[in-house]
Amino acid sequence: MGSAEVYIMGHKYILSGDGPDDYVMELALYLNKKCQEVFESAPHVHPLKASLLASLSITDELFKLRKLTKELESQTQSALDSILD
Q1: What backbone phi and psi angles, to 5 degrees, belong to 2?
Q2: At residue 15, what are phi and psi to the nearest 5 degrees?
Q3: What does the radius of gyration of the chain's CA atoms come to, in whole angstroms?
Q4: With 80 as the cut, is the pLDDT of residue 74 above it?
Q5: What SS3 state is found at 34?
Q6: Percent of the chain with pLDDT over 90
Q7: Most buried pick, 7, 26, 35, 43, via CB within 10 A?
Q8: Cα 73 from chain centroid (whole Å)
Q9: What gap in Å lies between CA 38 and CA 81, rounded to an integer?
Q10: pLDDT above 70 covers what percent of the chain?
Q11: pTM for the full model?
């Protein structure tokens, strides 16, 4: 189980997760980057709101990738079916 001391929006956190330390750090750095992007585009936004908006952005990325994965799986299965027929 990995753990890392990270800073997100200027606040220190000690995080732990199922992956290795460097993976936990990579996740935290990605979240911080997304938060900073939101905060830089709208500096008047409260850091908590910036964090929530960044979380929504990341969730949007996840859902789009899931949809793409399903489409690719379906295309792959169709191609396999036509090859095997």
Answers
A1: -90, 155
A2: -105, 150
A3: 18
A4: yes
A5: helix
A6: 59
A7: 35
A8: 22
A9: 45
A10: 100
A11: 0.80
CB 28 within 8 A of CB 2: no
Please tell me what DSSP assigns to residue 19.
S
CB neighbourhood size of 39 (10 A): 20
Q: How many residues does this entry show for the chain?
A: 85
Read off the tokens for 15: 């995080």
Residue 2 in contact with residue 23, Cβ under 8 Å? yes
- As a whole number of angstroms, the distance between CA 48 and CA 18 comes to 26
pLDDT tens-digit readout, 16-34: 888 898 888 999 999 999 9
Locate tokens 């799986």: which residue? Answer: 73
Residue 10 falls in which region: left (phi positive, over 0), alpha (psi -120 to 50) or beta: left
